[in-house]
Structure formats: C-alpha cells, structure tokens
TrEMBL record:
This is Reverse transcriptase zinc-binding domain-containing protein. It comes from Saponaria officinalis (Common soapwort). PANTHER family: REVERSE TRANSCRIPTASE ZINC-BINDING DOMAIN-CONTAINING PROTEIN (PTHR33116:SF80), REVERSE TRANSCRIPTASE ZINC-BINDING DOMAIN-CONTAINING PROTEIN-RELATED-RELATED (PTHR33116). Residues 103-184 form the Reverse transcriptase zinc-binding domain. Pfam families: zf-RVT. InterPro entries: RVT-Znf (IPR026960).
C-alpha cells in the first residue's frame, strides 16, 4: 500500500498549522520560534548580554524596543525577530512576560496556540496501541474533515454524491463509516471474530462507554480503527482505480495487521488473564 492510496487532507493540515501560527508565516512561527522568542525576551530583560549589547548598538540605537520598527536595510533575520515580537506584543506588559514570572518556551507556545477544547475521543485515537497511520485517518474521521463525495459534490468537483461502495446513499462520514452496507458487513465479521455484539451507531463512543477493562477497550478500539482505515482505503480504490475487494479478503488483511500488532500489545499487558485473552483472540 502506497501513501498515494490515502489522499491526505492538505488543506486541513495547513489550516491547523496556520491556526497555531496565527498571522505569521508557518516557517517563521512554527519551526523557528523557540529560539526567536527567547531572543525577543532577552532584549527586554538581559541588557548585560553581549548579543543584546550588539543589538542595541547596531539596530536599536536607543529606540524603545516595544515600539521599534526595523529599517528597510535590516537583515531578514532581524526582521523575523521583530515580527515575532509583534506577534507576542499583547503578552508583554511593561516589558514583563504576563503569563508567568519569566518567559519559557512552553509558556510562549501555550500562549500562541490558545486553549483548545478537550474531546473525549482523543486518548482513544492517539495512543500507542493503534497504528499511527490508522490514528491519523481516524482523527480526520472523528473531525469529519475527509474529502468525501458529499463535500466534493458541493464544491462542483464530483458529478454526484453517491457512496462509491454501495451507491445507495450520499457519501457522508456517518454513512461511509457507520451505515454503508460494505462497512457494516466488514465490521460485523470483525466483531464476530472478537466475540463482540456490534452496536447500531456511534461505535467509537460505544467502545468508550463499555464497562470493559483497559486492555479490552484498547484492543477493540484498535480493531475498529483498523477497520475504518481499510474502509477508507477501499473507498479510494473504488473511486480512483475502479476496483473493490470482497470484505472477506479485506478482513484477512485487517486480522493480519492486528495479529502483528498484538505482539506489541502483549508487551504492555500486566495481567496474565488479559495476556491470554489477547493471544487466544488473534491466534
């Protein structure tokens, strides 16, 4: 399987970075800022630093750092420092870092990214029991940001919005990963192998709320993620390559991936009973 089989949501990822970067270019704020923000802070509080003395002599020349604007012939690096200073202007009050007693990279990062709402599914998607590429696709599914045909049709890119796996309903996130006949057949076969009764809808929340122990929740969750990942892959194959595999063949691949992953799971399990359960489940 090549990465080309999984169209990455470039617009989403770029927007996420831009949100973190706010008004500055991504390259300036996201990748360079740890050192740059420190330099901005030093100009405020470290007048005895050799570098700050040099800056005062060459660039500031007695000007107020809070209101300073570089000249047109200043170097690009100095202009970048000044842009970062402007970005953090609201966080400095009277030359003091307002978020804590002194500036730190962590406090600067937390200030620029702003508090983000917590979601209940985060720890189930982003954990070491799941395969990283599965987690990424399932993160997009949870956020409902995959470019499915309902969105493509609305943008005028697709000629219709019908699901490419069933052709029965509009291809939305809830349909493709919950209601589609292909997905339900694949998921029911997987749950049967795991000896679990499949719920009607909202599978991810159902796993979270079940009164299982931690090991069983993580194993079932990783299995669901693997299933949704291959559904996304088969959807792309059907749409882009005009080929679709039978759910039984796809299930063998899912089961093979989970069996390999179980070797890692067994190293994390502390209770012998859970260890035997995982081994018997996938042997």
């Amino acid at each position: 399987m090549h990465i080309s089989h999984y169209p990455v949501q470039g617009m989403l990822v770029t927007n996420e970075l831009r949100l973190a970067a706010r008004p500055l270019a991504i390259s300036t704020v996201t990748f360079f800022p740890r050192g740059i923000r420190k330099l901005v802070w030093w100009v405020y509080v470290k007048p005895d630093s050799l570098w700050v003395k040099w800056v005062n002599h060459v660039y500031l020349q007695g000007d107020n750092w809070a209101s300073y604007k570089p000249k047109s012939d200043a170097t690009w690096s100095w202009k970048a420092i000044r842009r970062v200073k402007e970005l953090f202007a609201d966080a400095y009050q009277g030359g003091q870092w307002s978020q804590s007693a002194s500036y730190s990279v962590t406090s600067g990062y937390n200030w620029i990214r702003k508090p983000q709402p917590q979601v209940s599914w985060a720890k189930y998607i982003w954990n070491s029991w799941c395969i990283p590429k599965h987690s990424f696709i399932n993160w997009l599914i949870a956020r409902e940001t995959l470019l499915l045909k309902d969105r493509l049709f609305g943008l005028g890119i697709a000629t219709d919005d019908l699901c490419v796996l069933s052709g029965l309903s509009a291809e939305t996130h809830s349909h493709l990963f919950q209601q589609c006949v292909y997905t339900q057949l694949l998921m029911s076969k997987l749950m049967k192998l795991l000896n679990i009764r499949l719920p009607g809808t909202d599978l991810l929340n159902w796993v979270q709320k079940k009164p299982w122990n931690k090991t069983k929740k993580l194993v079932v969750n990783a299995s669901v993620q693997a299933c949704w990942y291959v559904v996304w892959h088969q959807r792309n194959c059907a749409r882009l390559e005009l080929r679709l595999r039978h759910p039984d063949d796809v299930l063998k691949d899912v089961f093979g991936v989970l069996k390999i992953r179980s070797e890692f799971w067994c190293t994390c399990i502390k209770k012998r009973r859970d260890w035997y359960w995982v081994k018997s489940l996938l042997d």
